[in-house]
Amino acid sequence: MTGDNRENTLKANLEGIRSRMSAASLRAGRKSGETRLVGVTKMVDSTLAGLLFTLGVHDLGESRPQELWHKSAQIPGAHWHFIGHMQRNKVEQSLPHIHLFHSVDSLRLLETLESCARKLDRKLPFLLEFNISAEQSKQGFKPVDLDSVVEPLQKLQWLQPTGLMGMAAFEENPEKCRCSFRLLRELRDKLSQKLGLALPELSMGMSNDFEIAIEEGSTLVRIGSTLWEGVS
């Protein structure tokens, strides 16, 4: 596929996604700008990721530290969202590149992030990841762990909790994901009350189910395969 064809296909995909996002917001009585698109770039190279940036998607998502390091150097100005599991020995090198860390999935990772943020003199906004699908293969805190995270969060000085992240189980009928997204929203509201902090962000919804997620209050949808269909 030529460069022009790839750009036209990507532009059409992007317009379709934005239209679907706006329609979902309208159904939920929300403003279309309340939910941001995070373009997931883990399946494409830095050239295509850069093309997406030039088309106006400045929030880009990566799930692998090495790809984050490489692509952030190639695409200055992008807001990089880390959305995967991170090994603690890669935290220090990764933090300078991250705009928002979505996937804080354990207290040990939380401690490492706090220590590295202090060392780098960097305030870091982050989301706690909860396993809302109850799948063994998924990372994250269990819903029953909610009370146990309150005290560690209250002790933070360098990390800034801003909300929660979660993934629903894949369903052929995305309507079945609604309960999972509703659970994450309820967990966010409970944690916000316990901390006495506003936690405005809900990172939930992917290519298969982002419209349902928006209807349930998502502020960040992480979309990859639908975005890159026919492009790469």
Fold and architecture overview:
- With 232 residues, this protein is of the alpha/beta class.
- The protein contains 9 helices and 8 strands.
- The longest helix has 25 residues, at 3-27.
- It is globular and about 55 Å long.
- The relative contact order is 0.16.
Key traits:
232 residues; alpha/beta; TIM Barrel; 9 helices; 8 strands
Please outline the helices and strands.
Layout lengths: L2 H25 L8 E5 L5 H9 L4 E4 L2 H10 L4 E4 L8 H4 L5 E5 L2 H14 L3 E7 L15 H9 L4 E8 L11 H18 L5 E3 L6 H6 L4 E4 L1 H4 L4
Parallel strand pairs: 1-2, 1-8, 2-3, 3-4, 4-5, 5-6, 6-7
CATH architecture: Alpha-Beta Barrel
* CATH class category name: Alpha Beta
| Strands in their spatial order, largest beta sheet | 7-6-5-4-3-2-1-8
Looking at the chains present, what oligomeric state does this protein adopt?
A: single chain
- Overall pLDDT confidence: 96
CATH superfamily: Alanine racemase
Strand percentage = 15-25%
Secondary-structure element pattern, one letter each: HEHEHEHEHEHEHEHEH
Write down the domain tally: 1
Structural class: alpha/beta
The dominant shape is: globular
Termini separation comes to 8 Å
Give the uncertain stretches in residue-range form.
Answer: none
Number of helices: 9
Q: Report helical residue fraction.
A: 40-55%
CATH topology: TIM Barrel
CA radius of gyration is 17 Å
**Main sheet properties:** 8 strands, parallel
